[in-house]
Amino acid sequence: MSFNAFHQDEYEVYDARLTNGRVSDLELEQYAVDTQPDAPPEGERWSSWDGATHGPKPRPAWVITDLGAVEADLGVLKTGKEADVHLVRRWVPGSPDRDVLMAGKRYRSSKHRMFHRDSGYLEGRRVRKSRETRAMRTRTSFGKELISGLWAFAEFETLVRLWNEGLPVPYPVQMSDDEMLMEFIGTPDGQAAPRLAQVRPASGLLPVLFEQLRESMLRLADLGWAHGDLSPYNVLLAGEGDDARLVIIDWPQVVDVIGNPHGPEFLERDTRHMCEWFTRRGYVVDEGLLFGDLMAAATSRW
Predict the structure, then answer these.
(1) Angle at the Cα of 83 (from 259 to 72), degrees rounded to 5?
(2) What is the mean pLDDT of the chain?
């Protein structure tokens, strides 16, 4: 009997014992090693760093680039219309100090996205080929695939630009075909920072947080951009007390305030949503004054 035939017989006997619940945990682990020789020694998969598009340099010290690292999905942090965000752990086996949590944003395919809300955001964006532009405009199957890819990579590229500009956004670690890994905003034990809509900060903290928001929106407007979907649900409150800081997330729909004919409308809506939250919490702010400052910043380059 050949070596392969002998082991095939062994596996058939094993499968029968497994079906009858007669396999020990040790045998199960050994069977996984025998049948999947390229599987990582720990975790669910090898590190996805190799082959991905990487974030900007210099990278934060916590980013693990070792090809011998492994990864595991620890569950869903947030579900959304365009993507779900998972908690992903990456670590180097045998190196306790090389262990990090990241947020993994997994984008839905064109079959599971809500394209009716894309058109206003996409105005002002261009692709190189007129065929692709037509396909996106008419929402053909090909066009929807293009929009899905444009949406995902637009968010990654936006985060790279904003991180380089010093804005309060998660560090973009890497981008692959359908997943973006980025900095996890939360505690070391995997507790995600709350969204602003979920918290009631002390009254003395509200002016500090509003100034952080104002500064971030002004810097963004100075680049000519509006978030496009800014609300207390897309702003995280990280840290506590004097260390409290706002982190702005969810950037696939970033809008060119001047290039998009609806740009000022998006900017006005972002401003209104955020000002209303502060006013409801007892810190009254002038929405019109902030919007005027933002429009002045957005148009100053023209």
Answers:
(1) 130
(2) 83
